[in-house]
From TrEMBL, chain A:
Pfam families: ABC_tran, Wzt_C. This is ABC transporter ATP-binding protein. Coiled coil: none annotated. Keywords: ATP-binding, Nucleotide-binding, Transport. It comes from Candidatus Microsaccharimonas sossegonensis. PANTHER family: TEICHOIC ACIDS EXPORT ATP-BINDING PROTEIN TAGH. It comes from the Bacteria.
Length: 400, 274
């Protein structure tokens, strides 16, 4: 292998054999030992013909949606899973952080866990001894080291685990979304550690959803989608492609009842439309069109909506009552049409729309429908902020 | 790099891990119990007290064998070791599933660690045996040390089974129930509580068959060297055909080779199958 290459992924495929019955039992062997059909497996392809190389000293990102196969790929690189076909070549000592604090045992003290976790990362007792003071200091747990781990808060556990992990003297580090845990202070520590790794030219393979981290740290990245490698190269390009993937919207089925829809239904939502279909033009308003049908006479029902972004954060919400709109007396069999028209200040991304109809005094829910529609906003130059209103900028330069 | 250094660096990680797993296992064993490590000694002592009362005091079995109490204890201690290694081994891989899914380390280490911590336990139990030897007036001689090769044989045999069971258990979760039954049967099919002399008197060929079981052969040989030359060994049951010793040794060899091979073949897929 080329000496500059740290990891070469050569045409790697992986499929999992999922047995149809949950557990293979010896019984099935006894009942019909000669019938090979009793082993009915379903093959699930997790990765298909993946090829790429990671150079020494590179900060390399692997991005993809949940279930795309990116974590499987990381586990194959780490040597936890075997490949179905293809091979992985590694050049240098590799340490995986699939999860912080692997092997931590709640019954052991903090000190004992440091030695155990350290051994799992390949430290001898001497090496842990030498680093022990600085681990404890970094974790800020001086007073707690002789307490059992089960008495630690989750934040303390993460700090301890991370403190041990940072001591790993690896030539290649595999990091799997460790950053998803911990508070802001902890995340800052993580990022500081990443910067240090980057400065020291450690080869890092980083699996994440966090596109801003990819853009900040990675030298190169790959995008995995539906088991295939769909993009490789500059992190900003890969991150943009990743963001775009969320824009292929799938139609939402009208559901009658379930965890996403409830209410007494004296009056209920019949259709929900978002217009325009393809939301690209900032100048055009966004229209939400509802048709509502009554089974009873309802006086002045309150109709409202809320729009959430991909993370579940409500971006905007209102209802007819807040806006002082009287919907009037809706008689049995009547159809009520409601249109909400709002300026398009949404930034690039995917959104969900919740609709609710309640009694005038909010004493009763007639129909509450979460994720009644999904829609996507496309922008030519996406910004990573909550909203992206059309901003008019004027400048005036006064010369001295 | 010279071959020793090379082997050291190749197995460095395994050795570090093995040490730490054994230490952790030992620390965890009696965590939370008031008497802690004292239980390591109390358990065989209590068991011995029961066996002594039942078999020596009431049933009066083995009155023909000198130092029958120590004879009994040694058998029980060695059998318990065999049980501990194999049952530890059985659940070694599945029990450490969390670790398997998150780290790539040589999988055999966890099975080996389980059998080594059982070995430590055996050592402690043998101390208890030694104490009773003193009390009973069993002489310590050079020949007492000849128990060591048989402990090695037992270690290898039990480890072979542990490898096989641990890998099988990943796929077939019925194995633990089956193994429980096998151990129960094995306990009575092995001359642990009763002297094999009793069987020999009734049906000699059954005694001859029983002694071919490596655990029975090992226990009898250990008793022969440690407790009393009156203990019947494979050698004395097949006095005309000493070469029958090959059979338990062969069984041991078959299990360790088969167990290691099967384990090696299955281990790459442990992480995804657990």
């Amino acid at each position: 292998m080329d000496n500059k290459v740290a990891i070469a992924v050569n045409n790697v495929s992986k499929s999992f054999q999922l047995p149809h019955e949950k557990m293979d039992s010896v019984k099935s062997l006894f009942i019909n030992p000669f019938n090979r059909n009793h082993r009915r497996f379903e093959s699930q392809h997790a990765l298909k013909n993946i090829n790429f190389k990671i150079n020494k000293g590179e900060f390399f990102g692997i991005v993809g949606r949940n279930g795309s196969g990116k974590s499987t790929l990381l586990k194959i690189i780490a040597g936890i899973y075997a490949t179905t076909s293809g091979s992985i070549e590694k050049n240098g000592k590799l340490v995986p952080f699939i999860e912080l604090g692997v092997g931590f045992n709640p019954e052991l003290t903090g000190r004992e866990n440091v030695y155990l976790n350290g051994a799992l990362l390949g430290f001898t007792k001497k090496e842990v001894d030498a680093n022990y003071e600085s681990i404890v200091e970094f974790a800020e747990l001086e007073r707690f080291m002789d307490q059992k781990l089960k008495n630690y808060s989750s934040g303390m556990q993460v700090r301890l685990a991370f403190a041990v992990a940072t001591k790993a003297e690896a030539e290649i580090l595999l990091v799997d979304e460790v950053l998803a845990v911990g508070d802001a202070d902890f995340q800052r520590k993580c990022f500081d550690y990443f910067r240090e790794l980057k400065k020291n030219k450690t080869t890092v393979v980083f699996v994440t959803h966090d596109m801003s981290a990819v853009k900040e740290f990675c030298d190169r990245a790959v995008l995995i989608e539906e088991s295939k490698l769909v993009a490789e190269g500059r992190p900003d390009r890969v991150a943009d492609k990743y963001s775009r993937m969320f824009m292929d919207e799938e139609p939402v089925k009208a559901i009658e009842d379930g965890p996403q829809r409830w209410g007494s239904r004296e009056i209920s939502i019949v259709t929900v439309e978002v217009s325009p279909k393809k939301i690209t033009n900032k100048a055009l308003p966004l229209d939400l069109l509802l048709t509502i049908k009554a089974k009873d006479d309802i006086k002045n029902p309150m109709v409202g909506f809320s729009i959430k972004d991909a993370t579940g954060q409500i971006i905007v919400a209102t209802n007819t009552k807040l806006q002082h709109i009287n919907t009037g007396l809706v008689k049995k069999g009547d159809i009520l049409n409601v249109k909400f028209s709002l300026p398009n200040y949404f930034s690039d991304g995917k959104y969900t729309l919740d609709i609710a109809i309640e009694a005038e005094d909010a004493s009763r829910v007639y129909d509450w429908w979460e994720e009644a529609r999904k829609f996507t906003v496309y922008e030519d130059s996406p910004v990573p902020f909550l909203t992206s209103p059309d901003i008019k900028i004027t400048t005036k330069l006064d010369h001295a | 790099m010279n071959p020793i250094k090379k082997a050291q660096s190749k197995y460095r990680y395994s050795i570090i891990l093995l040490k730490q797993l054994v230490i952790t296992d030992f620390k965890l064993r009696y965590k939370g119990s008031a008497l802690g490590y004292v239980w390591s000694l109390l358990r065989p002592l209590a068991l011995f007290a029961i066996l002594y009362v039942v078999f020596v005091y009431f049933l009066k079995i083995g009155s023909t064998i000198p130092h029958y109490a120590v004879y009994l204890l040694l058998g029980v201690v060695m059998w318990s070791y065999f049980v501990e290694v194999t049952t530890n081994g059985l659940s070694a891989i599945v029990g450490k599933g969390d670790l398997m899914r998150k780290l790539a380390f040589p999988r055999y280490v966890v099975v080996l660690a389980g059998s080594l911590s059982a070995l430590i336990n055996l050592g402690i139990n043998l101390v208890v045996v030694a104490i009773f030897m003193v009390i009973n007036g069993v002489p310590f001689e050079w020949r007492t040390l000849l128990i060591i090769p048989f402990i090695v044989e037992l270690f290898v045999f039990a480890l072979g089974i542990a490898f096989l069971l641990s890998a099988l258990y990943v796929r077939f979760r019925d194995i633990n129930y089956i193994w429980e039954v096998v151990l129960q049967a094995g306990f009575y099919a092995t001359p642990i509580l009763y002297p094999i002399d009793l069987v020999l008197k009734v049906t000699p060929w059954i005694a001859q068959l029983m002694i071919l079981n490596p655990v029975a052969q090992i226990i009898q040989d250990a008793r022969y060297f440690v407790v009393t030359p009156n203990a019947l060994t494979l050698g004395s049951l097949y006095s005309q055909h000493q070469y029958f010793y090959v059979i338990p040794l062969l069984i041991t060899l078959i299990f360790i080779v088969l167990g290691a091979m099967y384990f090696r073949k299955r281990s790459p897929s442990f992480a995804e199958e657990i």
